[in-house]
Design brief:
Elements (H helix, E strand, L loop, with lengths): L2 H33 L7 H22 L15 H28 L8 H31 L3 H8 L2 H18 L7 H11 L2 H16 L15 H9 L4 H9 L4 H9 L5 H9 L4 H9 L4 H9 L4 H9 L10
């Protein structure tokens, strides 16, 4: 296979795997709502998503045979299949934007425990994220194996433990969601904390898809990413292009805040947001970063009044939790 054909194959896989993962996440969310007898969904809605999944799966099978579906050289969809792919991407983009807005609103409400249907819907949005990510990772592993790309397989297999953990959390939430009478403060605290980053993740999905669709919409720019004129000026002045700026903005970072996190060595907005979600400023995170801590364990040790260096020494001695320290 020549280089151009291989690039088209990779390009097609990037689009299809994103759609397939998104649809699998949507199926999981709708299935949860259906089993919780939520009024917002019905068996026909689930069946429609399954039909889309089946069609995308057929395209993926064609990819495994070396048949590209979309060419990166097209500036418009040139086949019926390409038009369907664009439609599916646009539909997911709309849904992700709506979910982000709705989850933010729910997290700001003060009476959520008294609204069972909203709690169940919130559980479904976490599950949609978890199953989408897990399927996305597994899609790359499968493609890598089918097309003999061992480095791709190795890269994405390293991500499986974290995605499997998130699927387990989603399943635990689902089991609890089916039994509102068993809900307690521990359940609400866990659901709230795990949901804090969900609106921002869905915003990154919107930004992802905007880039995918830009091929057919005249290219990618600050304008196509939805930045206002003042935002373009401030992000450009801070040295950001539209792609990185969109991800930092998705996590509610200003240009100045993004620059500060980068100054302290954190260039991934999702990682910076995780530190922030665990209560760390850039400066406060630095000593923990220097000793290789991730945000959640750092928070646990910091709450127990341990400095990063001492916590690291204790972990080396076998203490995995501050409560174990005599």
């Amino acid at each position: 296979m020549n280089q151009s054909a291989d690039q088209d194959l990779m390009h097609s896989h990037g689009l299809l795997n994103y759609i397939y993962a998104g649809l699998q996440g949507k199926f999981a969310a709708l299935n949860i709502l259906l089993q919780c007898q939520h009024p917002s969904t019905s068996p026909p809605a689930l069946e429609e998503v399954q039909q889309h999944i089946n069609r995308v799966r057929e395209w993926v099978t064609e990819l495994h045979r070396g048949e590209s579906i979309v060419s990166q050289r097209w500036d418009k969809p040139e086949t019926f299949d390409a038009m369907r792919i664009v439609e599916l991407l646009r539909a997911l983009k709309r849904e992700y934007a709506e979910i982000s807005h709705s989850v933010l609103s729910l997290l700001q409400s003060t009476d959520l425990p008294q609204r069972p249907h909203d709690v169940q819907w919130l559980v479904s949005t976490y599950a949609r994220y978890a199953y989408s990510r897990d399927n996305y990772i597994r899609g790359f592993i499968e493609f890598g194996r089918e097309t003999k790309r061992p480095q791709m397989v190795e890269q994405y297999e390293a991500l499986l433990p974290s995605s499997s953990d998130e699927v387990s959390v989603a399943h635990a939430f689902f089991e609890a969601a089916k039994q509102p009478r068993t809900w307690n403060q521990e359940f609400f605290d866990a659901l709230y904390f795990q949901s804090l980053h969900i609106p921002y993740i869905y915003r990154t999905y919107v930004h992802d898809i905007a880039q995918m669709l830009s091929q057919f919409e005249g290219g990618f720019s600050f304008q196509s990413a939805g930045f206002s004129a003042p935002e373009i000026q401030s992000w450009s002045a801070a040295g950001f292009g539209p792609v990185p700026a969109g991800y930092w903005r998705a996590y509610d970072f200003s240009p100045e805040q993004a620059v500060e996190w980068q100054r302290y060595g954190v260039s991934d907005p999702a990682f910076a947001a995780d530190w922030r979600r665990n209560g760390f400023s850039p400066g406060a995170a630095v000593p923990w970063l220097q000793f290789g801590f991730f945000p959640a364990p750092a928070r646990k040790w910091a709450d127990a009044n341990f400095e990063a260096d001492r916590a690291a020494r204790l972990i080396e001695k076998g203490y995995q939790d501050p409560s174990q320290v005599p």
